[in-house]
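agent> fetching stored inputs for the zinc ion docking request
agent> found them:
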Amino acid sequence: MLLTTSVGSLPKPDYLVKARSQARKGGVDPAELKRLEEQSTRDWVARQEELGLDILVDGEQYRGDMVAYFAEQLDGFKPSRLVRSYGNRYYRKPIIVSKIRRRQPITVDWWRFAQALTTRPVKGMLTGPYTIMDWSFNEYYPSRRATALAVAEIIHGEARDLERAGAQYIQIDEPAISTRLDEIELAIEALGVVTKGLRAKTITHICYGNFQALSPKLNALPVDQIDLEFANRKFELLEAFKHLRLRKEVGLGVVDVHSHRIESREEVVANLKKALKVFKPEQIYVDPDCGLKTRTPEEALGKLRAVVEATRAVREELLN
Amino acid sequence: MITTVVGSFPKVAEAGFGTTIISAISRWQRKELPDAGLERVFQDITKAVMAEYEKAGLDLLADAQIRWEDLVTPLAKQLDGFEINGLERWCDNNVYYRRPILRKAPARRGPILAEEYRAAKACTSKPMKAVLPGPYTFVQMCEDRYYKNPARFMRKIAELLRDEAAALVEAGAPLVQFDEPALGFGKPPLKGVLEALAIATKGLKVPTALYLYFGHLNGLLSPLQKAPVDLIGVDVVSDPKAMGAVTKTRWTKQLALGCVDARNTKLESVTELHALFDVVTKRVPSDRLSVNPSCGLEFLPYEQAVQKVNRLVEAVQTYKRG
Ligand SMILES: [Zn+2]
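agent> prediction call returned; pasting tokens
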């Protein structure tokens, strides 16, 4: 009970950030870049083991944007120029120009690489079909639904391949799911296509949203576990679950990924105890609110340490 | 039938005027670039966009909002009483803005946008409208910790917007447009919205426009025919039922048809645009009709934004020739 994990991305070390930016300008050989990505993946797997996390991630050292990473490796997408996301921040929003096809598995080799480094389970990490659809331009499919369902088939194939390779946990991130509540049924339908027939434990991570409006639909999401951010909302979200009985496991985000401050063990213990009044211990997985890639490596380690140590303390109390 | 734009345009153009704004803003934030240096970058881009509009043959321009983070921040950060806070989603887009919080009575120290309006207008000989957030959208995008009363807050904002609009008219704007994307979501208080619009447009000596985009029309088109504006802009792309609503409405206002999708790269054909014009001109005579993209063009990359403007003008020109 109370297994610890993280949401997916971990910070890239300086040498890798530099190499990736040089590689975009053609200044670094792809084989050399791959070597550096492997080195930092190895380091992160070792760090997670040392910290004592129960379920590991590969840290996504080889990924940039969570949608562009998949779009770049699929047929049917063409890379686009910059569009602004807010303030002075820009990203490349992919364009769907023809039928989407997966030439070969996208994430399986990296999953295998990470899993070979440890005896603990490593999660397979995918971006969900609704989010890929919503965060791309579409010039090919006749509707948003057709697009989401086409992407869902592809992501389902990828999930199958991860499962076949041995993944026990498969996480499908859907941060866009809370954007348009009039499309929640479509998001659920598409996610259902992805998880259909999988034996691995399935998880979806949702963040940034109008949670109030989404909450009545949580039990309808076709996954075993729903991972949510609690810390950056000061655990107010727990209130909602006093009235709504969640019939799934919950991924409990207990440290805020948007702040530099490292939460103390006592603070996380106190919040975990609050959560235990609402959820059963065997229902809870403990993790940070979201991916840690925007934090420094030191901050990420500090926050993960807070997760593990607090959970351990609470576990011991529960067992004694 | 005239062609226009709704407001924003991409601030970066890898295949055009470049991406200098990104480093200029970060240098300015680090105080390595003085205000005047940043202003020069803004003005150069504005000039390039106006040249693009002129080349396309657009009839009525807007200033491209190169200095704007979003629709509300440029005003909120210059008004007394607001503090700019954390990121929130901009309507139903994968785009975010910083939500202003009202902490004290809002007050306007003087004209906010008139100077940048004049600077943009100096780049072109074409007429240029002024664009402002509508009072309802402005209030919806903020968190009110002062009045704790949305109706009072909206009336006060409407007064401030009217003063700002008057300053823009003084600066030469032949039309003042109020954008109300927030009307597309939830259940807007129609009576209060109409009252606020009456305050915001009171005494303005030029025609006024109300633009609706995103979300759903929610049966608003007919009641909005009573709004104290001369023109209503309708996004007929986002809401599949919008064209039906446009044709069912008895139009007393001029109509601006947002018919080219400014949120997707797929380029509309001239034929499909002509088919839309055929339907609409049966309800609104073409001398009371404008056409424009469905919303601001900044949701698109630069190349596609230019293509959309060109296609819009091409469709109207060929339509007029018959
Ligand atoms: Zn997240």
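agent> quick read of the result: Chain A has one domain: 3-319.
agent> awaiting further instructions
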